[in-house]
Specification:
Low-confidence stretches: none
Distance between the termini: 34 Å
Radius of gyration: 22 Å
Strand order of the largest sheet: 3-2-1-4-5-6-7
Helix content: 40-55%
Oligomer: single chain
Structural class: alpha/beta
Number of strands: 14
Number of helices: 17
Largest sheet: 7 strands, parallel
Strand content: 15-25%
């Protein structure tokens, strides 16, 4: 009851701020539209498997399973839900799913309506998603729920004294496919043994991307055999390290793919550049050969662009958290990241084995870049370590898929 009451207050707060906040407005509008979408698109004579991802990162972790399900069990339809607009707005037209919509707030009424309309045969919740009312309702209705690529830490609410009641939600999960042994150990302390350590499905996804990477003639023409740094999902604190170094090193080219590509941020980036640049959407085969910096001002290219770099920088490490490091490492390039990386197992592993390097300020960034650019053998060895780590950790999707009876 307390949980549901807090959810009602949270939902009310989101509605109240929505006229003034774009993401809140998209969330409210999208959730109001969910039941209409389900009534229109869910066919009563079909069997649906439900995948829920909070946002874009979790979607990428669930995608290998969706694609395997589509390929090996075409008799099932796929229902994909998002909670965050940053996931839904990018992937609302994903062709691998039959129905894509927002997941309404986890209130009892929403849960009843959603499950009545969706009628899923089974559900996959990706990584951190443990909605109390949804999971209890699935358990009551005998709908199998699988937690995929989940990872647990001692500081999570499940393992605190004040989270004892909420931790009962874990009992509603049919099986946990966790990333590491420590997660299994933590769950065992709660008496939960329906756990298999499989690793992270994201490794399978980035390998799939790598093997299907797009040829990008404009980026190839920009590179022209030079040394290229690809900086992906960058924020302003990242760019304040990357751009000054680039300005001072004429032998280095830069591909910069900022996390936010609204006009204000793009102009902010351009104001800091002291060498010729062009935006990708304005590039031609003629002008791209005359510039030293290529600004990626559109979505969907970064995962293929990393292949053109000698080094990579993955942003977010000076803020809430690092973005997709395996997406760059799969190409066998050394990866630089910011200091807020302790919650990312793959980054911690790569830091320990040398495939990744931590940047804490401008001095460490400059020093690491100097070392990577001046010593080809050192750079290639770091990249080899990164690529081999990704290959060694692949296979989670097949382990999950093969252990479930569809």
């Amino acid at each position: 009851m307390i949980y549901s009451f807090v959810l009602y207050l949270y939902a009310l707060a989101v509605v109240m701020v929505s006229p003034f906040h774009k993401k809140a407005r998209l969330l409210v509008k999208g959730q109001w539209n969910t039941f209409r979408v389900l009534r229109k698109k869910v066919r009563r004579d079909e069997m649906y498997v439900w995948f829920h991802a909070a946002s874009l990162g979790e979607f990428e972790q669930g995608r290998p399973l969706m694609e395997r399900l589509r390929r090996m069990h075409p008799e099932y339809k796929i229902l994909l839900t998002f909670f965050s607009p940053s996931g839904y707005e990018v992937r609302k037209d994903y062709e691998g799913a039959d129905v894509v919509c927002y997941l309404p707030f986890d209130t009892p009424g929403n849960v009843r309506s959603f499950l009545r309309l969706a009628r899923p045969r089974m559900a996959f919740f990706i990584k951190y998603e443990f909605w109390n009312n949804y999971l209890h309702a699935c358990h009551k209705r005998h709908i199998p729920v699988y937690s995929v690529s989940s990872i647990f830490r001692e500081n999570q609410v499940f393992f605190k004294w004040y989270g004892r009641n909420y931790s009962h939600v874990l009992q509603c999960v049919t099986h946990f496919f966790v990333q590491n042994d420590f997660s299994r150990e933590l769950l065992s302390r709660k008496g939960i043994t329906n756990v298999t350590v499989v690793g992270d499905t994201r490794f399978d996804r980035v390998i799939d991307i790598c093997t299907q990477a797009r040829e990008l003639p404009l980026v190839e023409a920009f590179k022209q055999g030079g040394l290229v740094q690809v900086a992906g999902s960058s924020w302003t604190p990242d760019e304040d390290l990357i751009i000054p170094y680039f300005n001072a090193h004429p032998g280095l080219k830069l591909v910069l793919a900022p996390h936010e590509i609204h006009e204000g941020h793009l102009r902010e980036i351009e104001s800091k550049l002291e060498r010729p640049f062009v935006r990708y959407t304005q590039a031609t085969m003629d002008n791209i050969r005359q510039v030293d910096c290529l600004i990626i001002d559109c979505f969907g290219l970064l995962s293929s662009i990393y292949r053109y770099g000698e080094t990579a920088y993955v942003g977010g490490g000076f803020g809430a958290g690092i973005h997709n490091v395996p997406e760059a490492a799969v190409y066998g390039v050394p990866v630089l990241v910011g200091p807020h990386n302790d919650k990312f197992r793959e980054v911690q592993d790569l830091l320990r084995n040398g495939g990744c390097m931590e940047v804490t300020d401008a001095d460490t960034y400059n020093r690491m870049m100097d070392g990577l650019l001046s010593d080809k053998d050192f750079r290639e060895e770091r990249g080899r370590i990164a690529g081999e780590y990704i290959a060694r950790n692949a296979g989670a999707s097949d382990m999950i898929f093969n252990s479930i009876k569809f």
